Amino acid sequence: LVIYILERYAGYFGRNGNEKVPTISIKGKSLYFRDTFVSMDKKKKTITLPTIYGKFELKFNGSINLSRLDKEKFGGNYIVQQKAFVVAVDIPFKPKYERESSILSFDLNKTPKHWIVLNDGTIIARPPVIDQLCDDIREINKLLDADKKKPVAERQLRSKQRRPLRLKWKRLHKKLKNEIRKVCESIVQRVEDSKSLLSIDSVKTGQTNGTFGQDHLIPLLQTMCENKGIPFYVIPCKNTSRRCNSCGYIDKDNRKDTDTFKCVSCGHAVSAHSNAADNIAHQAQRLFDVACPYGNYARRSVDTLVTKYASSTTKASL
Which of 212, 199, 186 has the alpha carbon at shortest distance from 285? Predict the structure, then answer.
């Protein structure tokens, strides 16, 4: 396969010179092919890969969502270690129900006591087992990061010492994900029972904070909502902690500290976490009101989306 791809690269360069070529990336022990080169026979359960020695046909034992693959040819990710070829396809999101109740939103925090604060007043403290796993991961990160920018000769840990630390880091993250999944299931069940819309905080992972569960909780909630057909928005976190949910005034001085919020404009005083949760619900309501499709908008501007879909809704009504 590698030789075949390199030959295609050579041919592309011969025809097009230095123009942009189809992207192929190598990460770890896998190869990602954006170009369409694999064909499949669903009845025979085979995939056919072209090589310099001709077409090579492989039997496959099973597939997830085989019915979704309706194209004749496609690219994908060939994972050498697992002997698997993974294909990503776009699947239209069909909600299980239209929102009948209020919006359930939450503010996700680093502090264990106020780990998840929902806009209905519920506070979920970070369970001790998750707290311990986060601490263990953080300690390994300190060891690995200490040598990251140093020359090889000055590093305290040699490759043989770093390898078991990375393996331990992966095992800890796997345990962390399993524990956080339990919390996600309870949140999603609450949303499903009340036929609400889930508004997800998109607080980002940072080098300074490290993991406090956000790197697993956010994607897990999104996946669960997609699988169950539960309406959801992932909301950009910009200004959600600075905006006053009472008057709408935005100022960094509104949030006095981690737990306290007092608006410098109207004087509204409330828990900083509940204020942020209300703001996240507010942004979701704005998207819902202009019929913005459900999905992840963590990297988008809510103002831009509202303008875009409000305009399209007006044209449709005319």
Answer: 199
Any alpha helices (H) in the chain, and if so which ranges?
Answer: 2-16, 128-146, 159-194, 214-228, 272-289, 302-317
Q: What is the pLDDT of residues 75-126, one digit of tens each?
A: 888 787 777 888 877 778 889 998 888 999 999 999 999 999 999 999 999 9
**DSSP strand pairing (232-235 vs 295-296):** parallel
Q: Show contacts of 124-130: CB within 8 Å, 24+ apart.
A: 124/183, 126/212, 126/213, 127/179, 127/183, 129/179, 130/176, 130/179, 130/180, 130/183, 130/213
Q: Supply the mean pLDDT for the chain.
A: 86
CA distance 135 to 141: 10
Contacts of 74 (CB under 8 A, 6+ apart): 36, 38, 40, 87, 89
The residue type at 15: R
Contact 232, 200 (CB under 8 A): yes
Angle at 246 (CA atoms; ends 244, 247), nearest 5 degrees = 75
Tokens of 272: 């900083």
69: exposed, middle or buried (Cβ count in 10 Å: 0-12, 13-18, 19+): middle
Q: What is the pLDDT of residues 291-310, one digit of tens each?
A: 999 999 999 999 999 999 99
- 8 A C-beta contact, residue 192 and residue 230: yes
Give Cα 301 to chain centroid, integer Å.
17
Token match 């976190």: residue? 237
Task: Quote the DSSP letter at residue 250.
Answer: B
- C-alpha span between 117 and 93 (Å, rounded): 27
H or E element, residue 295: strand 295-296
Query: Which of 15-29, 163-177, 197-211 shows the lowest mean pLDDT across its residues?
Result: 15-29
- CA nearest 167: which of 211, 135, 137, 145? 137
